[in-house]
Amino acid sequence: MKMKKVLGLALASVMTISMAAAAFAEEGGLAGANCDPANTEKTEESITIAFGSEPSTLYGPATGNTENESQMIASVLTDNLVAYNAQTGEIEPQLATAWEWVDDTHCRFTLRDDVTMTDGSPLVADDVVYSAKIWRDQNATNETGSIFTDTADAVADDEHTVTLEFTSNAPDIIRMLTWSQYGIVSEEEVEAAGGLEEVGKKPLVGSGPYKFVSWTNGQNVIVERNEEYWNPDYAGYFKQIVFTFTADPAARIMAVQSGDADVAYAVPTAQASTFAANDAVKVVNYTFDQVNHLWFNMGENAGATADQKVREAIDKALDYDAITAVGSAGLCTPALGYFVPGNTYYNEVYTAEERAVDIDGAKALLAEAGYADGLTLRALGLSDIEPVYVVMQANLAQAGITLELDMPDTAQFVQQSAGGDYDLIVVGEYAAARFPSLFIFFQNAYTFCIGGPKWTTDEINAQIHDFIFEEDAETAKELGKAFEETMKESTIQTNLFPAVNSAVINPELKGFNTLERGFMDPSGFYK
Amino acid sequence: MLKYIIKRILLLIPILLGVSAIIFILKTVTPGDPARQILGNSATEEQVQEKREELGLNDPVIVQYVRYIKNIVTKGDFGDSYRTGEPVLSEILPRLRTSGIITIGAVAIGAIIGIILGIISALKKYTWVDSLVLVISMFFQSVPEFVVALVLIMIFAVNLHLLPATGITSAKGFILPMLCIGLSSVASYTRITRSSMLEVLGEDYIRTARAKGQTENNITYHHALRNAMIPVAQSIGTSLGNSIGGGMVIETVFGVPGVGKYIVDSITQRNYPSVLGGALIIAIVLTLINLIVDISFVLIDPRLKTTIIASGAKKPKAKAA
């Protein structure tokens, strides 16, 4: 036990020290798509971006697929009705110049009249109608389709006006339309490509700053600048973007070091930080509106964590500073609220003092719960979160709790998390919009039994509904706080730390921007 | 001889059925639901069940297996990838070519270095040179391949800028993966060459050659080496078969679009048709290569031919008393 504690603390200390040199994105890192005003030139140069995995489709909505890499590549091929400016937090026009809610579920968009699609045809309202039907019909089981009912309508009022029907007029609906899977394509382009399935392989569609050139399976995807792009201010700096796929993060970083690649995307922050002092590369760290939370099993299969005293004991035994130091590579402070600061619903529900380690208090609570001699708990997690669990193991061991770890691959993780045969799970939750969001835990008890039937009550759902659907930001924040207080009082979960990720890039590159959920904007780079 | 070849080909059928059955059984006991994987966390249980039905995953395993084998035999259909919807065979064939090139290159590198070191080691037996060769070859066998891979990238891509760090966009891209896999097999070839050379060098005909006044070079390279190479060549043939799907780690590190990486990715994604198809195609290639190697050696080495013919000959019937 003592050894585990020492190891955990040593790991935390070493990582904290090693990360101290790393800093967050010099460019701010959280800007909207291709929005750096300094990026005004065009060159004949090419940029190579190394991803960790190859997508199965290049236009996900067509196949009901929402892979990260697919969405990042698609973001340069298609434009959306609206764009999100992360620097100002505002939703800005893109293909739509204006929009207004005409009732509780219908929003009318006025389209630009100077946009040409990849095939040279002008953007018309029918293209938006066609795209909306793809979002609805092909994506019934994923986040893209979640803002539409099965029968949601899309109507072209005239050539440049379109009305879309949504599940509600909640504020986050429009923000979600800035996500890359809501790109606009035309039916003619899709038909010319050979239909919806084919367009996933050869996406010569959209009106974006780049056009698809080739996809060599297993090797790369190449896109080239759209010289006819309707918005010259945001045209691409690089003539060509080459996306490559290398699973091993170390190899991706070395590809940047050697000059073979310009960007190694999604590198674990702990690994990237070791290159912070390396002049051959630049490390960019970024947060993405996601907090990692520790959830307790309170479902039908729950063991000791069904008892609130046990959950409180765990809460008291955890060293949030050490956990955060390891989990965020020393770049963040512990999360005091369910959401990240700056989020619409952010509230500081915990104080730093409340989160101080209290081993004696934890032991007392365990004794009250009938576990004076200690107990064993099982935790489920992905391997990238293992260092966090190691610190937790050390923390909980001091209170007499033995934490067993199960670190399967992603597929097993998804499967096992639905099974409920474990006590603890760390899950990062992107909470800038409704999905993936609280609903995963509370509405769909099958997927994650953490929270479980006990808390899938009308009352809890009503609370979530209240603040997500509230139009007034201040009121929404208050309602969100009330919900968080409920979670805190019952120790339904505990907040850990903001999620942080890294990219290693060519030091000459500027314009690293992230879109939703930390997705990089490949069209924003320049020198 | 023809009988032997036909017999070997027929033996492929139970081997491949066995391989496919084992993989199918493993598939059923592996945790993770492909339907859930395809549909994502937000899908309801009803949607997952519908998908399972659509994929035929609710059928008994034996039904799924028979259907799978039937499709292969009658249509050459290894199924469609859950991930891309493309036929598995069309996804694997180009990758098989890439893996094949790397395998041939790696085996060539490993064999050339290993044979040279093995000869040196045999000629300088029990000296410091022999020990040094042993240490060098064992080093490459002992260090994990992915570590060697990263070191090679550091040297040839990052520092010398001679070769690409990852990917296969030109012929240069093949060199580091080949070198990496090849170096790990050096020790094996060195040991086989050394022991084979030592055995041959102790044979009577070598002593005779020496007695006849032949030069040491002539004895070593003309008489000894040629005969010592038979087990080495057999080992090369086997390595070719084994390596075709064995470069999974290296293909992953170097971002090589090979069949090994394809299978690894498919396992992670619970993409069962791709896993099954990949493993089965590798098994077919491996057994075919082994068959070709075996037949080649029967043709090359007259002693083996004699053995086969002798073993296949009918035993004479005992005469009635």
Helix content of chain B: over 70%
Q: How would a crystallographer describe the biggest sheet of chain B?
A: none
Q: Would you tell me the structural class of the helices and strands of chain A?
A: alpha+beta
Number of helices of chain B: 15
Q: Say how many strands of chain B there are.
A: 0
Gross morphology of chain B is flat
Number of DSSP-assigned strands of chain A: 16
Oligomer: heterodimer
Q: What's the average pLDDT of chain A? A: 84
What is the helix/strand order of chain B?
Answer: HHHHHHHHHHHHHHH
Describe this protein with a few key phrases.
heterodimer, A: 527 residues, 4-stranded antiparallel sheet, disordered N terminus, B: 321 residues, 0% strand, flat
Describe the structure in your own words.
The complex is a heterodimer of chains A (527) and B (321). Chain A is an alpha+beta fold. Helices cover 31% and strands 20% of the residues of chain A. Chain A has helices spanning 2-19, 60-63, 68-77, 125-137, 171-176, 187-193, 196-199, 249-258, 269-273, 308-317, 320-327, 359-368, 386-398, 410-419, 438-442, 452-455, 458-468, 473-489; strands at 46-51, 82-85, 90-93, 96-101, 106-111, 154-158, 161-165, 210-216, 220-225, 240-245, 263-267, 282-296, 375-380, 401-406, 424-430, 493-505. In chain A, the strands form 3 sheets. Chain A has a 10-stranded mixed beta sheet with strand order 8-9-10-1-11-16-12-15-13-14, sandwiched between helices. In chain A, strands 4-5-7-6 form a 4-stranded antiparallel beta sheet, covered by helices on one side. In chain A, β2 and β3 form a beta hairpin. In chain A, α10 runs antiparallel to α12 (359-368) and α17 (458-468) packs antiparallel against α18. The longest helix of chain A is centred in the N-terminal third of the chain and has 18 residues, at 2-19. Helix content of chain B is 77%, strand content 0%. Chain B is built from 15 helices and no strands. Chain B is flat, with a radius of gyration of 25 Å. The relative contact order of chain B is 0.14.
